[in-house]
Amino acid sequence: MEKSLKKNKSQDPSQLVSQSGKMIKPSGIREFFDIVYSMPDCISLGVGEPDFVTPWRISDSGIFSIKDGYTHYTSNRGVPELVRMISEYLNTKYNLDYNPENEIIVTMGVSQGLDLALRSIINPGDEIIVIEPCYVSYGANISMLNGVPVIVPTLFKDGFKIDPDRLKKAITPKTKAILMNYPSNPTGLTFPEELLKEVGQIAIKNNILVISDEIYSAITYDKPHFSIASLPEMKERTIVLNGFSKSHAMTGWRLGYAAGPKYIMDIMLKIHQYTGLCAPSISQYAAIEALQSGDQEVEKMVSEYTRRRNYISRTFNDIGLPCLTPEGAFYAFPDISGTGMSSRDFAINLINEQKVAVVPGGAFGESGINHIRCSFATSMENIKTALERIKVFLNNK
Ligand code: PLP
To answer: Which of 67, 289, 327, 360 has the fewest C-beta atoms under 10 angstroms from its C-beta?
Structure first.
């Protein structure tokens, strides 16, 4: 009996995994981290998270919440005090007006907020326009829900700004939403208010939604962040995703939030009840402290990132890799097309010859293939050494 079961192919349990799970490609970033871990003297400009530790007062609050026994499920929406503070924060910083009772959900990072947002709007075959180059998980998240990512590229020559005509052409009767992120991972650039107005008008005219991943909103260099949801008539069709990972150096706490109109938030909350229950209680108490007293710490980190971005963008241009000055986040995205190498070959040769890890731009979509993403969330000393090594690498070609 045992034997006949084994022989029968239809009894093979490995056939039971989902098609969508099988089809998704592993992230192009992970591959490079595996190489970095195997090379102890390698300098990594590959990391996508702050190099600062979580400010102590915030961590301390998390520790106190454990000591005080706040270690249970919270309300599905989140600890009411935190939700109220997020509402105030969004109002003060970005002129957004969300009711803490029914328009905000605390999530396990923007990652879960994005998943909830997509689940709440996608029927199989629905199209989501993705502005590229973009964060590695967008396409996979949409495909796993049997949605169709429709790519709208942005180009170096346009400062990686959205071309409204290209956006309009990508819209079909199946389009549900535009998914975008600014300040952007990987380009480090952001979208100006005027452009966001145009995007908003296109969304309104075509009755589509906007999912706006604003996770780097607190890390801007020249101008404060402007949220598309603050434009007239946009709140009702925008889901804003944000969180504590980047702003407060809290990636491991897994804490974010989604804000949007009640009709979508109600659905997102139902899905959250069944799939996540609530965000970690300890992290939520730490986040209350982050919003209470964290501004000064954020400012300190941003001022250090500013120093590094000035150095890194200037030096890339000096050594012959054209680089637009990052406006936010902590990434420089220089153009390497002049070297004649693909971004993947560039990254592989650089790591092997000079022990510097960068992420090939192609990992963020076709429109990134002429670029490498270099994170400056690492010490100035590391950045200087890495750029010296990149210079040697280029001179040896
Ligand atoms: N969105 C973007 C654009 C990101 O760069 C990242 C992380 O790198 C995330 C979302 C994930 O954020 P979280 O840690 O809040 O899940």
So the answer is: 67
